Amino acid sequence: MAARKRHHSEGNAGVDRLSDLPDEVLGHILSFLPTEKAVQTSALSKRWKGVFSLATSLEFHDYYKKTPFINFVDRVLSLHKVSIRRFKLTVWRSIGQSHVSCVNAWTASALSLGAQQLDLELRYQMDDMTQHKLLNSCTMTVLKLKYYYDRAILKVPMSVCLSSLRVLNLERIIFPDVNSTSRFFLGCSSLTDLTLSSCEWMDGQVYSVSCAKLRNLTISDLGYYNYTKNPTIELDLPVLVYFKCCSIPQKLFHIKNPVVICTAEFDFNSSISYDKTDVFFIRLMRQLSNVKVLRLFGEALTVISRIKLSKLPATFVNLTRLEVGSRYGRKREGWRRLPKLIARSPLLETLVFKEGLETCYNELAIFLDDQRKPISKNHITIQVDAYWGSSKNL
Length: 394
Hints:
The protein is of the alpha/beta class. Helices cover 24% and strands 22% of the residues.
């Protein structure tokens, strides 16, 4: 550790106590700054020169022109002296196809520095060798991999070792075949949190997502793919407790040996559907009929309203808490379906209007006032988290 020096005599009113701290402490402090700002501290004094190379978190965004950005990242990584905890790289503007090798080299450098949390937002696909290194990092605990514009193929090596990985977020990834996909998830033996967003699967195949320790799963299909034969995603998740679906399913999800999931959440920003998508949603709802907490936000109630009651689960046998959102809840059909869901929930204790009440108040009154008989035999607590209507409507 470099010798520490006082920059002010004891007789001075101000003492630079920050510069007196050990190098390791200063490096830790700089880890909370954007890397660009951390590097600029070298201009403060000789004491601060090169201290940025001890930061345990590095974050790069290509908000600069092409050449300065490449040179800047190369310089910081070449001068870095300690292992890093977190590495984030956002590259989508300044680097073209001809400079993809730079991204590959930076990712490899982050892995060689022992990065535990890797957050990559890229425009072009990494090469095979870099992907193989990425999928065999035994120290990595968090991996977030997102591609802009074009989707990227997940090229899985014959051996995958992500034994420490706990959190995995994949966006705009193509799973090319059944065997490599199965091999990939089996290699994530400690995975507890998984998010799949706008991922694509090949036609007509049955994919297996098997994770023995996975507890939280979020799925978002932001686009519609015109499959000739729809793929099936088989979820073998024996300890799953939380499931979230952020869009109307565009493919068939099959929960293998379903356990009692504590919470299921559907948050749709659109009620537009295509052929078969309602069927996929119905099958998914049936598999989640044993859920304890059900959350219906966005257009989820509207989607449910157009499905025949006979196709919905006959009973939500374990449901004790139902949360509904009113962000898009202005359609009469959605609110009229709500009492039907309540009637099919014999253990329901709490009904929550999570996003408050406003213009939907009149629709809520429809099902409260028009009921000629009780919609539930239980005493149900109604919770309204916010109200934006007038006082005369209360």
